[in-house]
Amino acid sequence: MHKEFLMGNEAIALGAIAAGVNLAAGYPGTPSSEVLETVAKRRVPGTYVEWSVNEKAAMEVAAGAAYAGARVMVTMKQVGLNVASDPLMSLEYIGVKGGMVVLVADDPGPISSQTEQDTRHFAAFSKVPCFDPCSAQEAYEMVQEAFDYSEKYGTPVFLRPTTRVCHGYASVTVKEAEEYRVNRPEGFVKDSGRWVIFPRLSLRNHEKIEARNETLSEDFSSYERNRIYPSGGRGAASGFGTAAGRDDASGTDSCGGTGKKGIAAGGISFTYAMEALKDSPQPARLFKVATPFPFPEKLALQFLYGLDEVLCLEELDPVIERELTYLCGKHHLPVKIYGKLTHHVKNAGENSRDSVNQNIADFLGDAAGQEDISRPLAQSASQPPSQSASQPSSQSVSQPSLPVRPPVLCAGCPHRASFYAVKTAMKGKKTIFCGDIGCYTLGNAMPLDMVDTCLCMGAGLGIAQGVGRIEPDTSCFAFVGDSTFFASAITGVVNAVYNQANMTLVVLDNSTTAMTGHQPHPGTGRTVMGDVTAKVSIEAVLRGIGVSVVETVNPLDLSASVACVKRVAAEPGVKAILFRSPCIAITKPSGCLRIDQDRCIRCGKCIRELGCPALVTDNGRVCVDASLCTGCGFCAQVCPVDAIRKPSGAQPDAGAGPAQAGAGEGNGNPAQSCGGGDGNE
Amino acid sequence: MNKNIILCGVGGQGTILASKLIAAAAMKKDIPVMSAETIGMAQRGGSVFSYVRIGEGICSPMIARGTADLILGFEPGEAVRMLPYLKPDGQMVVSSRAIMPVTATLSGSSYSGDAMIAYLREQVRGLYVVDGEQACREIGSPKVLNILLLGAAAESGALGFTEEELREVIKERLPEKFHEINFRALSYAREQKETDHFRTEAL
After folding, report:
1. Do A518 and A554 share a domain, yes or no?
2. What is the pLDDT of residue A384?
3. Which among B16, B32, B110 has CB closest to A171?
4. For a Cys-Cys bond, which of A30, A125, A375, A620 suits B40, CB 3.0-4.6 Å?
């Protein structure tokens, strides 16, 4: 054993490796992406890892390997599970031979997602057992236990961390490579009575699954990560749930003499409750729920016994609260259960240390911690406070209003140029711009204002077609990214061609999966294991489907792009434009631009129309922020008086996107400091 | 040693690397450490923070209001935003250089970094103001602000780690070609402590 400072997702990956995972497959999605990347990076020889084209593909690849006896992990974010749900729902009826952990990262807040859906509910719906870790250390150990449960019961299992567990770091005690389990898959054994789903088999297996989950509920009541802390956090400071530090094992001792109150919590909220109770003047019995499905009923009854009131602290849906309310009804227990259903806890958004401190203080009737001394809690404590949130009492100066910083497209982002070209070309025409999930969702912000709809990955294609059916005189555009194109846009294109839709598909191809951290995809020619592979051509796919017009253009060349959009959009039927220019984060900057202040007429057009973070004003003068400018040269093409220039004095080269611009171009001049520096982040 | 440290700024300023270096320094001394940070969409030009918690008995990586021992403010407005998390007797090291959001540039409005600093002077007794812009110019890179602020916090004693310990983790964690410039930032923080660039408030 040794210690490493690990992100929760890295701890999960190392746990899977220690458990002898043979195959891992997934699709990137915040907050889950680092799990698969770390399995790929730290894998032992013989392990296979892939970024699949989407979550459904990942689930099916993993299922096949698990049929053959391999230990497998599938990784995705919570909305990815919607895509993978078709194979998963059936897979639960078939079962697995090798252990299968389905890692689904939930995103309370939501911080980077479309929904606040709760995978614990998906667990109950699909009947798949669910593990809910509360820390990086626990996640490391739990994923290994999850594999064992999966094999013991022949079922896929969920590991469902949330953002703060996934993206929190901790010093984690991990195994040495010699301690890793080695799993040698037996191979696929033909047995059509087992592997081929038919209604008769489904009925029989449904009965078995229901019985198994009752057994699992019993089993989980003695699973050591589900446990009761008789007197809350006291004396249990840091050792919770770790192999090293179990204190008062689950029991039903009296709860400190006074306690008629209990708190039930899961995941990161459990750790918040633990810290609040550690310093609380009022003791409370604390119940940690590590397996929300099947719910450990027997242990829950031990927890409830003798209590008058229970507060449930959990993020997303009131899963624990419903289970406890149900148990009280089933067993006629006179215990009041409080939480989201009773409006004692907010029913949307992320919990925070402060919100949990407040919930517990309200519940126990006294200040829960000694921490909140001088500054009052805001109504919504999950976000950093706005200017109105906190006013220390002794102040003589009122707090100046704080800058608002919505996320924006990066300086030099080619998506900005693509949106601007379409906007310019279609000015004055009746249009709809259907967006998608990715960096380009940020094209909705002012001043671009180029995203009229965004629903889920790939949906823009269908929405553009639907709007076109009702408004035939509208020019309908659907924007997708390159990774998104492969993940879920192709069926939409087939649908459009087959049904003779009239629309323009715009593929914003920046040669990477940018928003989630630059993962490779089928168009990049690389795999997550570092191999060079065939590039799947988006143009060839579109032509193969039967899209009649497919044009590719460099978005950083404004006049060519505008002409392309005008030409293509005027064609009938389904047509496509590929804007191709790599993400600025994976290319070297080509030297920053400068403003010729003698020429600049201060019209502000560059700032007003582009909104590039590198263009700033300083006492009315327009300036380039050298630390941000990538030298893409796009703003120079928008300037009406030719006042934006390359530092050497050379005219900006319209065609010189980062792909073509040599890294040496900016060297040897004073502006080379932009983008140089010491490589931080 | 038990410390709650918050690093806050704007995406791309190097807060995450700085928090990693603090954690590495704690790991070297075998002190338990947890941290959390902004990841994902908000990183793109948005407000970002890192929490670092050091010491025994920590359950979660998150920091409650009024419990931070130290805030490293990479940007004055962001430092004010996180002020409610500072302990009444907590310390703050802040760069005075304001970064205008794109929205401010678009609307022609602007906010004043000086007003933020003035407000912090009223509110925080243990305040160090660093002229980050001038310092980075003198050191020779716009990207060393993070190491500069770490150095300033080390000099003040608020960080709980020495300049030497920071040098060690920089050596271990960063590519060699970046060692020299970051060492220069640490030296600068030490040498300039008592000059105009580091206007030390009464502690």
Report:
1. yes
2. 42
3. B32
4. A30
